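Hi support team,

I'm opening this ticket because the web form for multi-chain structure prediction keeps timing out on my end. I have pasted the exact lines I submitted so you can reproduce it. The total is 228 residues across two entries, so I didn't expect it to be a heavy job. Is there a limit I'm missing, or should I split the entries? Thanks in advance, R.K.
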Amino acid sequence: DQQVKQNSPSLSVQEGRISILNCDYTNSMFDYFLWYKKYPAEGPTFLISISSIKDKNEDGRFTVFLNKSAKHLSLHIVPSQPGDSAVYFCAFQGEGTNAGKSTFGDGTTLTVKP
Amino acid sequence: NAGVTQTPKFQVLKTGQSMTLQCAQDMNHNSMYWYRQDPGMGLRLIYYSASEGTTDKGEVPNGYNVSRLNKREFSLRLESAAPSQTSVYFCASSPLQGRNSPLHFGNGTRLTVT
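Hello R.K., no limit was hit. The queue was backed up. Here is the completed structure from your submission:
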């Protein structure tokens, strides 16, 4: 049973517009929520995170929103740039005995067209 | 400032052969991880080491063994490779286990088992 779902395998947006990537989860024990970005032939790199006690975190063009009641996480990129074209993974960390076990979604491939 | 270094970058094995994937980090991180990524899927945790001297199973440990050689190095061994182990393997490290401690990934080892 998949605990983390990114229901859109791909997303295409025009340069300058907003990109919205979504993630749903089922495990209420998740404590931290992260987004990673991955270019081809490279490892994922950390982008932005949010704690379960917050509902929004901003870092420049990137904003992550958390809706705990809906178990929904989203990443907004404004404005989108061609260099943002990559695969985006949401990931979740628990605490305690589950602290070492980050759980990843299957990824969404974002294409930003010039 | 190398970060996380994985060797080799590519490997082709025949069924039944063995090999060890090497990983080293120079960031003085306590925790290290091995993930695999199959096409169209997210990263799945194979094994992790919360600190030097400890290792624990992740989601998909069968067919693998690990060694935390010292604080810097964490190796993954396939004793008898199978075609189902064809994948991209990523090593990662983090300062702490969990606690909103993002993972730092290497660039991966692409393994094909024929």
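A quick check on our side: The radius of gyration of chain B is 13 Å. Let us know if the file doesn't open in your viewer.
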